Amino acid sequence: MIYIIKFVYSFVLPPGLFILLLLGLVIWLWKKNRRPALVLLGVTLLMYFSMTPLVSDALIGGLERKYPQPDTLQGDVIVVLGGGASSGTPDIDGEGNLYGSAANRLITAVRLHKLSGLPILFSGGQVFSDSGNEADIAKRQLLGLGISQADILTDNQSLNTEQNAVNTAAILQEKGLKRPVLVTSGFHMPRAMQHFKNAGLTAQAYPTDYIASAEFSLQPSKFTPSPGAISTTGTALKEYLGLLVAHLFN
C-alpha cells in the first residue's frame, strides 16, 4: 500500500503534477491543431523522462562507474574537493556547514587519514557572496574531529574544479608533495581527474558520495517523476558538459 501511495503522490505533487497538466494541454491542442500538439507532446515526454530515476540513475551511474574505488592508497597527500557550503548556519563549534556532497567527501578523507596517516588538503573557497568558505569550514570541522592542525592544508580561494586543480598543484609543489589521492563524489571524479591532469598532476582517484545503486532493479518507482531525479539529471548533464570542456581546453 505504501508504494501505491508514493506512486500517486509523485503525480499529485510537483514535478509530476506539471506533467499531467502538460498532457492535458496536449489533449486540448490535439482537437484544434495536431502539429503543435505533437511538438508539445515531445517536449512533455522529454521533461517526464528527465524527471525519472530510470534516466537520472543511468546518467549519473555512467559517471560514477568510470573510476572504481581502490583497495590501497598510493599517494602522499589526500586532496578533498569542496561541493558547496552555507554561511551563518549553526554548527557545534562555530558557524557554517558543508553541503551534503562536500560533507561526505570530508568524512571519507578523515577515515582515509586515520587509516594512512596522510595529510589532508581541502580545496574550495567562497563561491557566492552568501555562501560559506568551504576550506575554512572544513578546517574547523577537521580540527573538531581530532585531526592535528599539522595534518591540515587548505586552499580557500578556488571557485571551481579547474581552480581546485591549479591551486592544489601550487600548494603541493610548495610543500614537496607529488602524489595526491583525489577524493570527490563519484559523479564529479571524471571531470576532476581531467582538470588535475591538465594541471600537471597524476592523481589516484578515490571516489565517494555515490548516488546510483550498484544493482539495478526495474520497478514502478523508476518511472515516477521526482525532484530528486530532476536534480540528479541536472547534475549529470552539468558534469558531462564540464568534462567535454575540460577535454577541449586542456
TrEMBL record:
One of its GO terms (cellular component) is plasma membrane. Residues 76-242 form the DUF218 domain. The chain crosses the membrane at residues 7-30, 36-60. The keyword Transmembrane helix applies. Keywords: Membrane, Transmembrane, Transmembrane helix. GO terms for biological process: Gram-negative-bacterium-type cell wall biogenesis; peptidoglycan metabolic process. It comes from the Bacteria. InterPro entries: Cell_Envelope_Assoc, DUF218, Rossmann-like_a/b/a_fold. Pfam families: DUF218. Gene3D superfamilies: HUPs. This is DUF218 domain-containing protein.
